[in-house]
Structure formats: structure tokens, C-alpha cells
Description:
With 132 residues, chain A is α+β, with helices and mostly antiparallel strands. Chain A contains 4 helices and 3 strands, in the order αβαββαα.
Amino acid sequence: xxxxxxxxxxxxxxxxxxxxxxxxxxxxxxxxxxxxxxxxxxxxxxxxxxxxxxxxxxxxxxxxxxxxxxxxxxxxxxxxxxxxxxxxxxxxxxxxxxxxxxxxxxxxxxxxxxxxxxxxxxxxxxxxxxxx
Amino acid sequence: xxxxxxxxxxxxxxxxxxxxxxxxxxxxxxxxxxxxxxxxxxxxxxxxxxxxxxxxxxxxxxxxxxxxxxxxxxxxxxxxxxxxxxxxxxxxxxxxxxxxxxxxxxxxxxxxxx
Lengths: 132, 114
């Protein structure tokens, strides 16, 4: 059952979110983090602060969703930006926003995180590494 | 077979005794109450046995996946103020280590409101 904005997440849905993060990490090789909860102060500043607190922020993607204030922020690290640019993030944010508007926060996050993972997936190149 | 409405019982049957007020009250009020109480008890027993299966387990609690837990009550005032001002984490002595402009240059991403 979809979780409307502002309500809690059931254990099964939390597992779905963890699975989405894991899949995105396997697809992209990046570190994905998700914060779902109430932010303090400015949402972007809060998200950047949480991103900076991560173990390896330059290689991490943070998705922060605040259903209470209806705010979504995607923060990418310095090295992540090479494979996941802001345009991809905006596309994923638009996808998530559509689900959020329909009242499905968990579904939107699951889809959006997997979309980010797909967008950051590095294409396999046969020539690199073979003769290096 | 047609039974006239003015008769109390079927022809040949003994006359039905009039129930007392207590009987009527018990039947119309007492019996439904017993059923309601029974259902309430069964529901409570079911929840006690099944635990909190139907209740949101992490209602209104922040969910962190691959991150650090946020403890708003334990955050010191300087860090909280730094977040609100859009600055990076303040040092232990309260000095700002990095400003928002340089932070935004390093990080990318997108945001949305709904």
C-alpha cells in the first residue's frame, strides 16, 4: 500500500528502499545513501550537510526526502558528477516528484534511486583495460 | 399455509408466554454488547500475538540507508545553526570550515518540491 506524504514507512517498504539502494550501487559502482525524514532548516543545506558527513562524500550520492516539508534533494559528490550529471538528477527528481504527487513516497524513491543507478551505469568497453 | 397475523402461534401450538422486560432488554442490548466485547477481545489478542504487524514500525522516524543516523536532540547548537545558515559543519570551536559557495561548486544534484 502506498505511503502518503507525512506518514510512516512500514518495515516491508523500508526493505524495498534498502533493496533499491543496493541495486543502484551494483549497477553504478557508486555509493548511494538515502535519508527519509524531516530536515532541519533549509532542505538543500541540510542534505549537503548529511552528504558531507558520509564516509566518502566525493564518491557518494545522497537522496534526501522530507515528506513533511515536501522536499526532495539529490546531492552528488565531486567524482560522482563525472558519471551522474545534474541533468540525470533532474530527470530522476521529476520521476520521483510524479510519484510523490500521487501520494506514493516509497514507490517514488524506489523508482528514482534505481533510475539514478541506471543513469550512472558505466558502459562496458572492451578496449579499455585489455591492452593497458 | 397462510397464518393469520392476529394469532400468536401456529394453530395447535401452545400459546407463547410474554417475555418480561428484562428478557427483552437482555436480548436487544445485552446480546449485542456481548458480541461487541467478544470481537474487541479477539482483536486485542490478535494484535498481542501478531505484534505490531499492522502498525507502521518506523512512523515519523528518519530512515537512513547507508548513512549516519541523525540525532537532532544531540546536535549541538553551533552545528544546527550552521545547517540553518547553509554552512558546512562548524568545528568544535564553532568556526566555519567551509562556506556554502565552495560546497555547491563541489557537489551537484537536483532538488524538487511537490
